[in-house]
Write a structure and sequence with these properties.
The protein is α+β, with helices and mostly antiparallel strands. Helices cover 29% and strands 41% of the residues. The chain has 2 domains: 36 residues; 106 residues, Sandwich (Immunoglobulin-like), CATH 2.60.40. Strand 3 and strand 4 form a beta hairpin. It binds calcium ion (2 copies). The site of one calcium ion (CA) has 6 residues, from loops. It comes from Motilibacter deserti. Keywords: Signal.
Length: 155
Amino acid sequence: MFRYKLAAVAAATAVTAGLGLAGAGAANAQSIGEHKAKPSATVKRASYNYAHLAIRSVGGGNYSVTISGHATLTSVTPRNFSISLYSDDTWFDENLFDKNWMTTFPNGDFWTQFTIDGDTLDEDWGQDEVYARAHIWDPALGSFQLTTNVVTGSF
Ligand SMILES: [Ca+2]
Ligand SMILES: [Ca+2]
């Protein structure tokens, strides 16, 4: 009973505001509503996206490659995450390796690890520069890419 009365009062107030101060009343109601609908945690989560590449020798001319990061997503769908490794070069960044159809964690974090031979990473005479891109899919945002740091080595 009490709730019904409150709702009726609120509705009457909204109508009065709408009739009396159409512009200001509507704007105030909207900004208050938005403030309540977006807790600060959501805003913080939206403020960072990143991808990180690490490469370490595991012996026998092989290397362990790890790509990790975070993507701010509206929702997580299966197979929403792929990666590509590239050589960092002056004229043409060659695609060295792909790993497709992985899925991010529910919070948008992602992580993948694989072992690759040094010949694949040996993209230059002398020193090699390798980076990765994470390809992310979101049903509302579409597809986007996050580029990692460049790892330098003699692979
Ligand atoms: Ca290079
Ligand atoms: Ca090389």
